[in-house]
Design a protein that fits this description.
Helices cover about 45% and strands about 10% of the residues. A hairpin with a 4-residue loop joins strand 4 and strand 5. Helix 9 packs antiparallel against helix 18. The chain starts with 8 loop residues before the first helix and ends in a 16-residue tail after the last helix. It is an alpha+beta fold. Among the domains are: about 210 residues, no CATH class; about 110 residues, no CATH class; about 90 residues, no CATH class. It has an 8-stranded antiparallel barrel with strand order 1-2-3-4-5-6-7-8. The protein has a 3-stranded antiparallel beta sheet with strand order 10-11-12. Strands 13-14 form a two-stranded antiparallel ribbon. The structure holds zinc ion (2 copies). One zinc ion binds next to loops. This is DSC E3 ubiquitin ligase complex subunit A. InterPro entries: DUF2921 (IPR021319), HRD1_E3_ubiq-ligases (IPR050731), Znf_RING (IPR001841), Znf_RING-CH (IPR011016), Znf_RING/FYVE/PHD (IPR013083), Znf_RING_H2 (IPR024766). Its main location: membrane. Keywords: Coiled coil, Membrane, Metal-binding, Signal, Transferase, Transmembrane, Transmembrane helix, Ubl conjugation pathway, Zinc, Zinc-finger. Its EC number is 2.3.2.27.
Length: about 850
């Protein structure tokens, strides 16, 4: 007897969640694997800070005064290249800002009038190429044995480094992190107004397809528009030597003072046990995932040089405003909107120079003057405030789409208000739609934690999605579930019945084997001793061959639960009318055809309650959410496959409806308005994330996946439409679907009496007086019933005219000649057959009339015979 083991699933799922969910609290400490305690790490940081404080600009990198991790001569880093890198960065600065920039760099001109953004927040995107300076720089000869992490196998190659760029071109994205408050410091040299800056960088190597993500920390000098950032790791104390990358004595002092201040404050916080400051300069984005097999990664020093804002309105620039003042005004207005008239804020534009001291590569942003603007415009992107403003607009559109979804759902619920119409709708289709809304709710709640600037808007949208899923979606699902309960019960009974028959067959076969053996032993008692092996095996083989034939004796085919099509030969005696379950008559339990003799062997009926369904719904939702969260840190290729297949699964929501239409041979379960509307609206978020470049999540454009998703969804819509027009089963084989009653039979002149609607001709009506079915309409005293039983012979051949008992109008019906072939009926008569419906009790109506009637009662309007659901 099968035990109910479903209870085990829930604890397993919970364990799965715990296993899969990222654990940010524990991991930063484990980054310091080499250093046993946090105290050691702090001591090392304090020592490095001391080295920084005592160093001065131009100290030879390998000198003993700069005793920092990563600078030891025996490491083999390419520090010889640093002067060349500084030169190149200075060239970029001069190109961007001209002479004024050069003077400002040397501290000669403190306030160059350049239109630069002071506050860099936002997102940059562009292409990189290998720098011209690369040829002049020898590749480093890394002392790989100094990497203690790798070594068990003795196999250490530079190629196994993470972030090792080997191609010649690729894409780069930089997202500046917004600080809660700008870190200003009080120092004697306040001229540059330096601030600390952090960024997430994503480097994609087009030739290898590799994509790396890293975190950078550094300083930004607003008056120069210059950011210098670096990675920091266990093998390279980048942040402590950052000032030495500065391009001039003056900027060195500035950076040194700033870093002294901010680093010592961070160390203070670490001492006080602030867990968020445990590893404040980690370069790995997934610093939370402690991976013992992690390869060391290439370090990176990044120079970013802001270009002057272009596209400012000429009138504004030439008037009273100085360019710098105009940009400051724009920036202030963006951050603290007063509603003042404002020209569109131009994009930020930076040129980039990235140098890896250990892997030796030098990358540059692609742009002028080495490339024409059509090929590359360095790194450009909107400011965060612009991004947020756009994000708010996008969210508004998305919320409107959600609202439209709710309206569509509401209208569909009103339309499907009767049990009969509800029973046509696929439970799973609506469930998938609701799961999608639930997923949206959860995702927006999560995103709102990270994009603080859009918190209110995201929460609002999440609330709409929540209303959609909990107030409307779940109620509709519950309604459908309740209406379809008898259907599930019947299916469960059928499964149980099949199981019982299988068992009976087995028992019968066994009985036969025993009987045969007994018979053989009785007839040939002497031979058993001579050939025992042969005698034993033979009956078994016979029994196996007999087995399939056995069920004929007592089997009740499942198909008997539905009435035969009218075109089939019907027994005259209607006492054997098959029992089926109309869905609006739940209380009417069908009589079991064969009552089992021994109830002890009957298998249990498997039916789940709505409560367990509810639990499953939310568990599935949570599981998807947790796995998706986890997936966001997977490698880019796998991540893309995961999210695309998740999207494909979600966008298959019409498949269950198509299946249900086929199974029940019914059509028009859902409004066309609902189907088309949902198919458009559900694609909106995908179009946004896959097709729109400046989306809030910075997801990459992927027209290919978007096309696949859209085409897939609309194929389903087309199939649904064809089911409506041609018939629910036109694309499946006859034997694939369970038998179902056909309301639109071909009417033939030659099959009189048995198949034609009552009243086909006077002769037909009188020829079968014994049938109670035929007699019943006549016995009803209402004149309509009597009228319907009289068919008028019409003029054109192949047409008959009946009366529809519902609307009292004429109903012209095509009739095939007695000699007509079936081919012509399939092609020409298909749509014509959709205009009328013949009930199992052989009454004929307009399709519209009877469909309207069947929304409310599954009974023949004339004779009250039960009708199979449509
Ligand atoms: Zn009618
Ligand atoms: Zn009837």
């Amino acid at each position: 007897m099968a035990q109910d083991r479903r209870g085990i699933i829930i604890p397993l799922l919970i364990i799965g969640f715990i296993f899969f969910s990222p654990d940010p609290a524990r991991s930063p400490a484990s980054r310091f694997q080499e250093r046993p305690t946090i105290e050691d790490a702090i001591a090392e940081e304090q020592r490095s800070l001391g080295v920084l404080q005592n160093s001065s600009y131009g100290d030879a990198i390998h000198s003993s005064t700069l005793n920092l991790t990563g600078l030891e001569p025996d490491r083999g880093y390419a520090w010889e290249a640093l002067p060349r890198i500084r030169d190149r960065a200075a060239q970029q600065l001069e190109y961007a800002l001209g002479d004024a920039g050069r003077q400002a760099l040397e501290g000669e001109l403190m306030d160059p009038d350049v239109s630069l953004y002071n506050n860099v927040t936002g997102f940059l995107h562009g292409q990189w190429v290998v720098s011209k300076a690369q040829e002049e720089v020898a590749r480093p000869h890394l002392n790989l044995s100094s990497y203690a992490q790798e070594g068990r196998s003795g196999e250490r190659h530079l190629s196994r480094f993470g972030r090792n760029i080997t191609g010649s071109a690729g894409m780069v994205s930089i997202r500046f992190r917004e600080r809660e408050q700008p870190v200003h410091y009080s120092s004697a040299v306040d001229a540059y107004n330096a601030t600390g800056i952090g960024a997430e960088m994503s480097l994609k190597d087009t030739s290898t397809g590799d994509e790396y993500e890293l975190q950078l920390q550094g300083t930004y000098l607003p008056s120069l528009g210059q950011a210098i950032m670096t990675t920091t790791s266990e093998k390279y104390a980048g942040i402590f030597m950052l000032p030495h990358f500065a391009l001039s004595q003056a900027t060195f002092q500035e950076a040194k003072a700033l870093l002294n201040d901010s680093i010592s404050r961070t160390i203070e916080r670490q001492k006080q046990g602030d867990t968020t400051a445990l590893n404040p300069w980690a370069a790995n984005v997934e610093a939370s995932v402690a991976n013992p097999f992690e390869h060391p990664s290439c370090e990176l020093i990044v120079y970013l040089q802001q270009h002057e804002a272009s596209g400012l309105p000429a009138a504004a620039v030439s008037s009273a405003f100085r360019p710098s003042a105009l940009v400051s005004f724009l920036e202030h207005e963006l951050r603290f909107p007063t509603g003042a008239f404002m020209p569109t804020a131009p994009e930020m534009r930076f040129s980039m120079l990235a140098f890896s001291p250990d892997c030796g590569y030098i990358l540059e942003s692609k742009g002028e003057p080495d490339f024409v603007p059509q090929e590359g415009r360095h790194l450009a992107g909107p400011k965060l405030e612009v991004l947020y403003r756009n994000g708010r607009h996008h969210l508004l559109v998305f919320t409107l789409a959600l609202g439209a979804q709710i309206i569509l759902l509401k209208r569909q619920m009103n339309e499907a208000s009767t049990p009969s119409t509800r029973s046509r709708i696929s439970f799973y289709s609506i469930s998938i739609l609701s799961l999608g809304d639930g997923f949206t709710t959860m995702t927006f709640l999560l995103i709102s934690l990270f994009i603080t600037g859009l918190w209110v808007n995201l929460m609002g949208t999440a609330f709409i999605a929540f209303v959609s899923v909990s107030f409307f979606g779940m109620r509709f699902i519950m309604d459908i579930w309740t209406v379809q309960a008898p259907e599930r019960a019947r299916r469960a009974r059928e499964v149980a019945e099949e199981e019982r028959q299988r068992r009976e067959r087995l028992v019968a076969a066994l009985e036969r084997i025993r009987a045969e053996r007994r018979a053989r032993q009785a007839t040939t008692p002497a031979t058993t001793a001579e050939v025992p092996a042969h005698g034993d095996t033979m009956p078994n083989a016979n029994a196996g061959a007999d087995l399939p034939a056995a069920p004929h004796s007592d089997a009740q085919p499942v198909s008997e639960s539905l009435p035969l099509p009218v075109t089939a030969q019907r027994p005259i005696d209607t006492g054997a009318t098959p029992v089926f379950m109309p869905s609006d008559q739940d209380r009417l339990e069908p009589v079991a055809q064969t009552q089992t003799a021994n109830p002890g062997t009957e298998p249990e009926l498997r039916m789940s309650s709505f409560g367990s369904l509810y639990t499953k719904f939310y568990l599935l939702l949570l599981a998807t959410l947790f796995i998706s969260l986890n997936a966001s840190s997977w490698p880019a290729g796998i991540r893309r496959v995961y999210f695309t297949s998740l999207a494909l699964t979600y966008l298959s929501f019409w498949i269950p409806q198509i299946h249900r239409n086929v199974q029940r041979n019914c059509r028009h379960a859902l409004n066309w308005e609902f189907v088309l509307g949902q198919s458009v609206l559900r694609l909106v978020p995908f179009a946004y994330f896959y097709g729109y470049e400046h989306n809030v999540l910075f997801a990459k454009r992927d027209y290919y996946s978007l096309t696949i998703l859209a085409v897939w969804l609309w194929i389903q819509v087309v199939i649904l439409g064809s089911q409506e027009l041609v018939g629910p089963r036109w694309f499946v084989g006859k034997d694939w679907a369970p038998p179902a009653y056909d309301y639109h039979p071909v009417l033939r002149e030659d099959e009189e009496g048995a198949t034609m609607p009552i009243g086909f001709s006077e002769a037909t009506a009188s020829s079968a007086p014994t049938s109670p079915l035929v007699e019943r309409p006549a016995s009803l005293s209402s004149p309509t019933a009597r009228r319907s039983s009289v068919a008028k012979e019409s003029k054109p051949r192949g047409k008959r005219v009946f009366d529809c008992a519902i609307c009292m109008q004429d109903l012209e019906v095509p009739v095939v000649d007695s000699g007509g072939s079936s081919d012509s009926t399939l092609t020409g008569g298909l749509l014509a057959r959709r205009t009328y419906m013949v009930t199992p009790c052989r009454h004929i109506f307009h399709s519209n009339c009877l469909e309207g009637w069947m929304k409310y009662r599954l009974q023949c309007p004339i004779c009250r015979e039960t009708l199979p659901p449509l």
